[in-house]
């Protein structure tokens, strides 16, 4: 008697999804998504290269009645089209908090308000992104999108997330593996 098990998928947690020029959804054009969770129930990630000029972190801190630190603050990012009113903080894990999702040994994600309070007080993570919204996929949905050439999957890089200017992240994420993403797919099928 054999037992049937659901297929185990390799997790993409901690990887970048880099949209290719073949991406059919214009909302994800030139996006770099950090996959924060991926399992048989679906996937969740945040875009790390799309700042939203309509918001500033200073305004958000002010609205929460928190002090504004002296140091330059990063922009507010659009993490994705789902729950745009939900705030997330993606940060290097040298800072610790109780409620976090460990994405890799060096990167965590949290929705805990204490992280924002610590940032305002100057004792939060040194490197972080403040994001509104996220990107989500149902069971099997991301895997189907990967088959259609909409995404290139590469290992994530802390340097690209936190130290590379936003306008260069899309090309830099692919170029770290020698791939010119702007021409990716131009020659597929013409062997």
UniProtKB/TrEMBL annotation:
It comes from the Bacteria. One of its GO terms (cellular component) is cytosol. InterPro entries: AlgH-like. Belongs to the UPF0301 (AlgH) family. HAMAP family: UPF0301. This is UPF0301 protein HNQ81_000085. It comes from Desulfoprunum benzoelyticum.
């Amino acid at each position: 008697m054999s037992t049937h098990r659901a297929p185990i998928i390799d997790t993409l947690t901690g990887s970048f999804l880099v949209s290719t020029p073949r991406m059919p959804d214009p909302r994800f054009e030139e996006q770099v998504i950090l996959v924060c969770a991926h399992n048989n129930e679906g996937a969740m990630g945040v875009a790390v290269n799309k700042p939203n000029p309509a918001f500033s972190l200073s305004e958000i801190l002010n609205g929460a009645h928190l002090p504004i630190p002296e140091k330059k603050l990063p922009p507010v990012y659009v993490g994705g089209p789902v729950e745009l009113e939900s705030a997330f903080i993606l940060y290097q894990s040298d800072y610790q908090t109780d409620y976090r999702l460990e994405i890799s040994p060096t990167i965590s994600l949290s929705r805990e308000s204490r992280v924002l309070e610590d940032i305002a007080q100057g004792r939060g993570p040194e490197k972080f992104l403040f994001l509104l919204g996220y990107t989500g996929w149902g069971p099997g949905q991301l895997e189907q999108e990967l088959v259609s050439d909409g995404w290139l999957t590469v290992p994530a890089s802390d340097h690209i997330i936190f130290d590379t200017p936003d306008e260069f992240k899309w090309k830099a994420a692919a170029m770290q593996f020698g791939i010119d993403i702007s021409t990716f797919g131009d020659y597929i099928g013409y062997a």
